[in-house]
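Narrative summary of target 7.
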Amino acid sequence: MKKPKWYVVWKGYSPGIYTTWAATKAVIDGYIGARYQSFGTLIEAEAAYVAGPDVSGLNDFSGIARELPPEVILDSVAVDAACSGNPGVVEYRGVYLATKEVIFYKKIDGLGTNNLGEFLAIVHALALQHANKTALPIYSDSVTALAWVRNKRCKSSITRSSDTAPILDLVQRAQVWLENHEIGVPIHKWITTEWGEIPADFERKN
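Modeled conformation, tokenized:
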């Protein structure tokens, strides 16, 4: 007979103690920086839940992403975009840096540019964290996209057409979101020359 487990969720959509993995997964899937762990007895789980994730060692990222220097914040989100052509089909994604788990991904219909994808990726990370009530730092390797987010406005020269309308509509929505929300999350430039490719990189270059 399979031994029972108790699952402690410290950070998720609904923190608590769960008796099945299915119930646990439902409250952590898509939650940036989720903290959870399984235990063999209810007493252990209850004690760990009260003690918190720091005591349980879940914020100790030694051995995870060890190749990165100590100044890189592992409890963070890294974003990147890829574009097949210029303009071309744009994809972007975000990963939780400590584990390199993909937490969101989007492929956009029509044509766009890499910088537009980078901009949308940063705003997606901001909006997702706002919804989740989390505040993890965000890393991007795009100087242009970082400037656009700070100014809450894209300066792209791409013109509207039937092909570019899908991404430009998303950009417009992202700009409106930025205008109506404070950016309460640190956004950092990923230093590729020192740290290597950003972990959200699609690992393909044109």
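The chain has a mean pLDDT of 87.
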